Amino acid sequence: MNDDTIVEARELARRFHLEGRDVDALLSANLSVRRGEILAIVGASGAGKSTLLQLLGTLDRPTGGTVFYEGVDIFRMPEARLALFRSRKVGFVFQSSNLLPEFTAEENVAIAGMIAGKPKSQALKEARNGLAAMGLSQRLDHRPGKLSGGEQQRVAIARALVNEPALVLADEPTGNLDTGTGEEIVELLFRLNREKNQTFVIVTHNMDLASRMSRRVRIKDGAIVEERAAME
To answer: What's the pTM?
Structure first.
């Protein structure tokens, strides 16, 4: 692993036991993600894209291989330390915003800060600042049910970024949005990448979006079958 690599998968595999048979969702994947790049992961539904993303973010554990973050084998960490790593070093954006419906936008974002160990007052202050950066200063006390789909996804992005993670993992972040709103979210992600040098790994079916990223990786039947600069 060189100094430019923020996260690296080595021989990463994930097997599930479903309905009496073994299913290989990911097969010996090797992938290095460079600091500050915006990487697309593409492929058909069920190819293993989301599985790879979940393993990179330690939301799941591999059945083979491992993941290194800045040279550290993260799956060798005790569970408590791994949970703290996940909350502080990695941000997650999903296709559905996954906001807690009983909490306001401000509270949804602040919870991520408190999980990372911040005092409530600091977490709330940073949540307000993060939502302001998303253009949501007037929506702080709105619950998700009172927000549009695009606003909900902006809250989700603010939540993912509130702890200033170096690595942001996004799984079809525009999949549930209309074309115009989706484009606004895409532009927001690219702006964050440029201005904050945050590293993004984005799973997408949208090849137009993938072509705008610095690099793309294609997965087929659980295996990485292609890797190229997006402009190629």
So the answer is: 0.90
Residue 212 inside a domain? The answer is: yes
Q: Which two tokens stand for residue 83?
A: 């949970």
Residue 176's pLDDT band, with cuts at 50, 70 and 90, is: confident
Of 123, 228, 113, the closest CA to residue 165 belongs to 113
> Residue 139's closest CA among 119, 156, 122?
156
Beta bridge pairs of residue 211: none
What does the block give as tokens for 147?
């927000």
> What are residue 91's DSSP bridge partners?
168
List, for residues 193-224, the tens digit of each pLDDT value.
Answer: 888 889 999 999 888 888 889 899 999 988 99
Q: How many domains does the chain have?
A: 1
d(CA 225, CA 217): 8
Range of 208's domain? 5-98+161-229
Q: DSSP string of 36-89?
A: T-EEEEE--TTSSHHHHHHHHTTSS--SEEEEEETTEEGGGS-HHHHHHHHHHH
- Residue 96 sits at φ, ψ, to 5 deg, of -90, 145
